[in-house]
Design a protein that fits this description.
alpha/beta, seven-stranded antiparallel sheet, globular, 23% strand, Rossmann fold, 607 residues, eight-stranded antiparallel sheet, binds fructose -6-phosphate, 34% helix
Length: 607
Amino acid sequence: MCGIVGFTGKHNAAPILLEGLKKLEYRGYDSAGIAVMNGSEISVDKVTGRISNLCEKTRDGGAVPGLCGIGHTRWATHGAPTEENAHPHLSNDGRFAVVHNGIIENYLALREELTEAGYRFESETDTEVIVHLIEMYYKGSMREALINTANRLHGSYALGVICSEDPGKIYAAREASPLILGVGPEENFFASDVTALVNNTRNMIYLEDGEFAELSPDAARVFDVTGQDIRKSPVRITWDVQAAEKGGYDHFMLKEIMEQPGAVKATIAPRIKDGRVFFEELSFSRPDLQNIRKIIITACGSAYHAGCAGRYALEKLCRIPVEIELASELRYSDPLIDEHTLVIVISQSGETADTIAALKECRERGAKTIAIVNVVGSTIASLADSTIYTWAGPEIAVATTKGYTTQITILYMLAVYFSSILGYIAGAEVAYTDEIQQLPSRIQQAIDLNPSAEALAKKYHRSKALFFIGRNTDYAVALEGALKMKEISYVHSEAYAAGELKHGTIALIEEKQPVIALCCNHAIMEKTLSNIVEVKSRGAKVLALTFRNNQKILSVADDLLFIPDVDAVFSAAIEIVPLQLLAYYVARENGCDIDKPKNLAKSVTVE
Ligand code: F6R
């Protein structure tokens, strides 16, 4: 999705803006631009395609003097990815420039009104109405113009604005789209993502919905819709700059796959006290939990798949029914939710529009809500009754890996924690806690056991389609394995519950059709085995994912990926790892842009 940056200080702004935009590339974009103020002159440079084109056009920013400015990467929604539609947009009189993330839902009505009032539109974007509104409302005070403009907008926005009559200042506003201020000595910044700021400062102020900011080199002021200043203290970011760099790997995705043992350790460590799982973020008593009639887990994409996998542990250990709902479906489904429902929303970014809407819907219906989120200070984190951070560190590759495994880890821990409060696992609590503490080393083994993933990718990368099959937790992981494969390698991949094959899908199995069979659950191994035999007898080539010494599968599969031995309740976080590696290497064989797959964005802030 779009990204924005802003800078004001004592250095040339353009190179700093370009560096910030490069850090936002991973979010996905198709054009980019900067506006820099030099004295009272605003100059705008825009390009289609990559930031490198903008660097070339501005000679790495050297050709654009000026100490403050704003920048943008655009992921086209309203209007094609052209230079005209790229941000920043200028007002007709050239005094104002605006960058915007989000969607202005009432832009057509505003466009009509502004056109009648004589404003000329240069683009097809919804954003352009904002800059004309600012021009219309400006009577000498940018605060006033910004507030009056915001009052006219319906939808979501993170805005960055400069005004030639206010040299040295950059303005920002937030409504339902992330925006963070970076506070430094004699310089201040804003951006839609901490990763664009962390090279310059560790001190961040998270803007909330309805808040505005006025930044000069010496001050970062936040104000509300009445124009009154709000006191907000900066929060210090503790992860280091290298966490957002590739660190010697060819791709962020591979680095993030390899980081999983450490990320999962960081998720677990602060939540084990005296050998037991403990969440200080939560305050559930036994009667509170007894009062819950069902749990709904809602999320999108991989986060939804994490819910599908974590459900088994929650149901098995807590004996509470768990429903999994896609957030984009739940929000329009008139869901049966009341004060006896516990809703768990899952989101790596904390900014996914559908998940935010589903969370709001559930809250309105009286549910208790827990958010499992990675990005600190994100919208979902601030909306839920309780927030559990995954502490996975910054995830840059569009395709999530450590985001997913840390989400499942939290679900496992919640299952043990709730079950312990409910008094269901007295004798087994230590053993379950031990299983959880073993996750990081088992994930490491799942990496180490599969050097063959690279060679297997060479064998399978030309396949027209890949079928992933499994039962129970294996099926949940198959869903995520298939998504990983299709989104980065563009090989058509689908997951099927193995027992469902004979109800239709088996018609697609023909000679040499690859089938990736997940068999990591001892209790139902025989069942999956018979599905493997079914597809094999119709000519399929089977790549099985199973335990190292599982002789039954070894003898029927054509190829193998391995995991270490683990209880099926906690296996999903381990099983996915070889499938992530396979997807990565298949994508590499296919020459794909692994960290930035086509048409995808890291943070899906529009519906
Ligand atoms: C796939 C992927 C997406 C996200 C989905 C939700 O690899 O990353 O499917 O899982 O867009 O995003 P978050 O977790 O940020 O809400």
